[in-house]
Recover the amino acids of this structure.
């Protein structure tokens, strides 16, 4: 399995070429440079690896939630390349990327968006729930009262750990994923190929827009 993975929602614009479990090439640019330098970074991975697009089996892209601009750029590039090269496109949630390999339950995964705003997913033995909003309010919605057992934290844990500790919830932090794009790529390698059009892959922005247009009544 050989794939190109692109991730733009988790703090930077990253791309990697993966052949089974071997990293052939990887590039990273700052998220505010993604629009100008993102395609050049992708091209550089092909140049370094010697792989051509017709040697790929699929493309994978991060769906968010996370940073709006990087997410939009990464998804736009991934869709355009998948359509041009006639390759399957697979989307991977930021939550799944940041929790890659984790088995502990209950587990809370947190993605930072705008300053002070998070998207969070809580997984327990009874299922999962998620929400977005101001950090303390989002945590209170998912965990209205402390759990009897320790809660595993993944992702952007610092602010949430403090709030949870103040509420008496025992927590422990899971190891941080060292390379989100590589975690994403490995998850996508294990997934069945998508049959749907790349147009069916949509962004998960997490939170509601900061500004809303009022409607007339």
């Amino acid at each position: 399995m050989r794939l190109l993975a692109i991730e733009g929602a988790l703090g930077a614009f990253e791309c990697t070429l993966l052949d089974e479990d071997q990293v052939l090439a990887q590039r990273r640019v700052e998220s505010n440079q993604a629009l100008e330098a993102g395609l050049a970074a992708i091209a550089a991975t092909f140049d370094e690896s010697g792989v051509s697009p017709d040697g790929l089996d699929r493309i994978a892209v991060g769906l968010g939630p996370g940073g709006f601009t990087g997410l939009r750029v990464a998804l736009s590039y991934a869709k355009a390349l998948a359509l041009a090269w006639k390759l399957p496109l697979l989307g991977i949630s930021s939550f799944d990327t940041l929790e890659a390999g984790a088995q502990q339950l209950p587990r809370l995964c947190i993605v930072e968006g705008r300053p002070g705003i998070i998207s969070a997913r809580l997984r327990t033995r009874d299922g999962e729930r998620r929400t977005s909003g101001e950090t303390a309010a989002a945590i209170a919605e998912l965990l209205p009262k402390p759990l009897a057992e320790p809660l595993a934290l993944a992702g952007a844990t610092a602010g949430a750990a403090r709030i949870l500790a103040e509420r008496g919830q025992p927590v422990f932090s899971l190891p941080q994923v060292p390379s989100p794009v590589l975690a994403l790529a490995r998850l996508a390698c294990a997934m069945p190929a998508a049959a749907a059009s790349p147009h069916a892959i949509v962004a998960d922005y997490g939170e509601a827009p900061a500004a809303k247009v009022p409607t007339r009544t």
Remarks:
- Helices lie at 34-49, 68-85, 94-98, 135-142, 158-166, 180-189.
- The longest helix spans residues 68-85.
